[in-house]
Amino acid sequence: MAIHLRISGVVQGVGYRASFEAQARRLHLAGWVRNRVDGSVEAMVDGPTEAIDRIIAWSRRGPSQAHVSGVQVTAAEDAALIPGRFDVLPTA
After folding, report:
1. What's the CA angle centered on 49, arms 42 and 80, to 5 degrees?
2. pLDDT per position as a tens digit, 52-79
3. Has 60 been annotated as catalytic?
4. How would you classify residue 56: left for phi > 0, otherwise alpha for psi between -120 and 50, otherwise beta?
5. Which are the contacts of 79, defined by CB distance < 8 A and separation ≥ 6?
């Protein structure tokens, strides 16, 4: 089950990407996370449903310095993510 997340609020410059990566790795999710030029954070993750549910719940809180105002979650068809690999990508 792969999903695409778009997280808005105060989510850049507060360690959100690094914290998201650490959480995703703890949950053994595949995918990536990156900042967007509009100030949001974007992620694509794939893994078991329970782990996906946990990363979605975490993304609504984020690290302590973040102030998340919204999380958009959409199904990601043909995500082509590499199992066991999670990356932090450059800003897009």
Report:
1. 55
2. 999 999 999 999 999 999 999 999 877 7
3. no
4. alpha
5. 2, 4, 31, 44, 46
Q: Which domains does the chain have, with CATH numbers?
A: 2-78 (3.30.70.100)
Q: Tokens in use for 37? A: 């030029």
- Active-site residue, selected from the candidate residues 26, 34, 35, 85: 35
Residue 37 burial (10 A CB sphere; 0-12, 13-18, 19+): exposed
Q: Is 6 a catalytic residue?
A: no
pTM above 0.90, yes or no: yes
| Alpha carbons 37 and 58: distance in angstroms, whole number | 22
**Encoded amino acid at 44, one letter:** M
Tokens encoding 91: 């800003």
C-alpha angle 14-46-22 in degrees, rounded to nearest 5: 30
Measure the CA–CA gap between 78 and 92, rounded to whole angstroms.
20
